Amino acid sequence: MLRLSVPTAEQEKRWHITAICLIVIETLLLLTALAPAQLWTRLLPQSAAAALDGPYPPVLAPLVAALLYVLPTLIGFLCRAWQRALLYASLPAWFSLGLFLVAATSKIGAFYLVSPDHVTANVSILELFALLGGIGWLGRHIFKLHQSG
């Protein structure tokens, strides 16, 4: 039965733990997406699609792409405060991009981070994930208003 009352502390704790688990899953997906194709061809030499699809079979590629959009939205939906929704939804991108930039600057140079095309791409990714978290948070409040009305 769906309870429409104020969530209990236990319920909030479960939602918070679920959001953290989704953050970890999203971070792992992003890390695999940002890993260079050469890494996957070295780690998975028997796979013909490793350079294109990474560690995922080609049949799962659409699911992985969908998860990259759905998970930040779901994370935002699970948060009561919009600030937390934006932070939690974009946290995997912050962490993954940070690791990627550290690895890239060790090979390319210290100014890789501030080159205009990379700054634009990185900010766009962060904005996308924050926006998806915000959409999830708005969805939560629209759903709550619809349920109470």
H/E element string? HHHHHH
How many β strands by DSSP?
0
Mass-distribution shape: globular
CA-atom Rg in angstroms = 18 Å
What fraction of the residues are assigned to beta strands by DSSP? under 5%
Return the domain count: 1
Number of helical stretches of at least 4 residues: 6
Oligomer: single chain
Spans with pLDDT under 50 lasting ≥5 residues? none
Average pLDDT: 85
Could you give a short account of the major beta sheet? none
Give the helix level as a range of percent: over 70%
Based on secondary structure, the structural category is: mainly alpha
The rounded distance between the terminal residues' Cα atoms is 18 Å
Keywords: Membrane, Transmembrane, Transmembrane helix
Transmembrane segments: 20-39, 59-79, 91-113, 119-139
Describe this structure in words.
The protein has 149 residues and is an all-alpha fold. It has one domain. 77% of the residues lie in helices and 0% in strands. The chain has six helices and no strands. Helix 1 packs parallel to helix 5, helix 4 packs across helix 5 and helix 4 crosses helix 6. The radius of gyration is 18 Å and the shape is globular. The model has no long low-confidence stretch (mean pLDDT 85). Keywords: Membrane, Transmembrane, Transmembrane helix.
